[in-house]
Design brief:
NAD; binds adenosine-5'-diphosphate; single chain; aldehyde dehydrogenase (NAD(+)); 6-stranded mixed beta sheet; about 20% strand; aldehyde dehydrogenase (NAD+) activity; Ald_DH/histidinol_DH
Length: about 500
């Protein structure tokens, strides 16, 4: 059962950085404006944060431009860059608990997950890309003639990066890690719901020796600061994570301005397929994790749970029992599995989807309402008898609402799982290697997790098919996003030699 929501626990951290980080200094917005960032547990103000607009984005881009064109960063030896990244990772690790507390305060996710999963993953990822810094090199290319041909892999320039609120620091790391390792400079815009933790982490990069202007962080809203970054003529590359609708907007802004290349990590409606041979207890637990992790606020959430008809009834009973046992409460309390949703917009949207589910005839097994009367807590909710054409099975809910659908055979479930505009991820639960092989090849998605879910190793590429995105982040693949290839051709004077 859900724990009672009591008086919010006071976080063991102070908010130190609320200004924009431009050219190595914390500064106010040019307009002097600020906006409040709210505690999702209560809806109360945590801090007022400088609100960047286009003139601030201009200042930040000018600093990044200068740091790229004239600064030491892209010209430093790769080994020097590597050492700075490694020092930054060490500092973040040292401040793990404060950063985790800020993350939980601003976002609402369980502190234990911030402290034991998200910050360690950030550290691991920065070390991973530090490792790449001195291993990036081009090729010697054989040509049809007396030429010496080689390729240089050069940093692309100023990277504009726009990130969401669901994993503020992990998204920060996925963006800055590869960009810095390759020698680029950055203007990063955080999500307006969660500006705090990235400012803290960026400050530690400066402390680690990152030259001023290499990493600039602008807090602010999408249509103002975000759009200014996406359409900036001096930004050489754009990386965006957020909703599919906003992805279309930024791609258009990039095309209309200077045709900067864009990578996009967008929405999803990922199937989690439980086959007839599956161990049901394990499948229930993993399907529960696949959907409810991070308050259901994952782009890759397993939000269409397809269960074989032979085990469907048993699965639904057990999935309901598991959701009823989910511990919801103040994310600073030990043992909490689920905190509040991020804000009132998302909270209202999720409750609206729960109503659509009921109205369209799905069976509400458990949950279905808010929890308590303060903040943005929602009961873990499970629907059975969900049909493919219901809105809850087609659209991204981004909340703790599990939809369980029934299937008969593999061909059918492949067709249904692929019948979506999204293609981010899928889960496959089976003991049969042939079934696993068929599904992994037939599903049109960027990641298939077989008998696991949400395994986010730094080395494993992540990204979407179809309208779930363009390009891949993490792993070696992400380096490509931040490098230009220059072919250098010169004639050989004496080909006989
Ligand atoms: P969500 O609906 O989950 O908040 P969004 O895609 O709107 O997802 O937000 C992801 C990021 O994109 C945030 O940093 C947000 O400020 C930014 N953003 C929103 N609208 C725009 C826009 N028109 N141009 C650029 N960035 C935007």
């Amino acid at each position: 059962t859900a724990a009672a929501i009591e008086e919010p626990i006071k976080p063991a951290v102070q908010v130190e950085y609320t200004q924009l980080l431009i050219d190595g200094k914390f500064v106010d917005a040019a307009s002097g404006k600020t906006f409040p960032t709210l505690d999702p547990r209560t809806g109360e103000v945590i801090a007022h944060v400088a609100e960047g607009h286009s003139e601030d984005v201009d200042r930040a881009v000018a600093a990044a431009r200068k740091a790229f064109d004239h600064g030491p960063w892209p010209k430093m030896t790769a080994y020097e860059r590597q050492k700075i990244l490694l020092r930054a990772a060490d500092l973040i690790e040292k401040h793990n608990d404060e950063i985790a507390a800020l993350e939980t305060w601003d976002n609402g996710k369980p502190y234990e997950q911030s402290a034991k999963i998200e910050i360690p993953m950030l550290v691991r990822l920065i070390r991973y890309y530090a490792g790449w810094a001195d291993k990036i090199h081009g090729l010697t290319v054989p040509a049809d003639g007396p030429y010496h041909v080689q390729t240089l892999h050069e940093p692309i320039g100023v990277a504009g990066q726009i990130i969401p609120w669901n994993f503020p620091l992990l998204m920060f790391a996925w963006k800055v890690g590869p960009a810095l390792a390759c020698g680029n400079t950055i203007v990063l815009k955080t999500a307006e719901q969660t500006p705090l933790s990235a400012l803290y982490a960026a400050k530690l990069f400066l402390e680690a020796g990152l030259p001023p202007g290499v990493l600039n962080v602008v807090s602010g809203f999408g249509p103002t600061a975000g759009a200014a970054l996406a359409s900036h003529m001096e930004v050489d590359k754009l990386a965006f994570t957020g909703s599919t609708d906003t992805g279309k907007v930024v791609l258009e802004l990039a095309a209309k301005s200077n045709l900067k290349p864009v990578t996009l990590e967008l929405g999803g409606k990922s199937p989690f397929i439980v086959c007839e041979d599956a161990d049901i207890d394990q499948a229930v637990e993993l399907a529960h994790f696949a959907l409810f992790f991070n308050q259901g606020q994952c782009c890759c959430a397993g939000s269409r749970t397809y269960v074989h008809e032979s085990v469907y009834e048993e699965f639904v009973e057990k999935a309901k029992a598991r959701a009823l046992k989910r511990v919801v409460g103040d994310p600073f309390k030990g043992g909490i599995e689920q905190g509040p949703q991020i804000d009132s917009d998302q909270f209202e949207k999720i409750l609206r989807y729960i109503r659509y589910g009921v109205e369209s005839g799905a069976t509400l097994e458990t949950g279905g309402d808010r929890l308590g009367n303060k903040g943005f807590y929602i009961q873990p909710t499970v629907f059975s008898n969900v049909k493919d054409d219901m809105r809850i099975a087609k659209e991204e809910i981004f909340g703790p609402v599990q939809s369980i659908l029934k299937f008969k055979d593999l061909g059918e479930v492949v067709q249904r799982a692929n019948n979506t505009r999204y293609g981010l991820a899928a889960g496959v639960f089976t003991k049969n290697i042939d079934t696993a092989n068929i599904l992994t090849r037939a599903l049109r998605v960027g990641t298939v997790w077989v008998n696991c879910f949400d395994t986010f190793d730094a080395a494993i590429p992540f990204g979407g098919y179809k309208m779930s995105g363009q390009g891949r982040e993490k792993g070696e693949y992400s380096l490509k996003n931040y490098l230009q290839v220059k072919a250098v051709v010169n004639p050989l004077k004496n080909p006989a030699w």
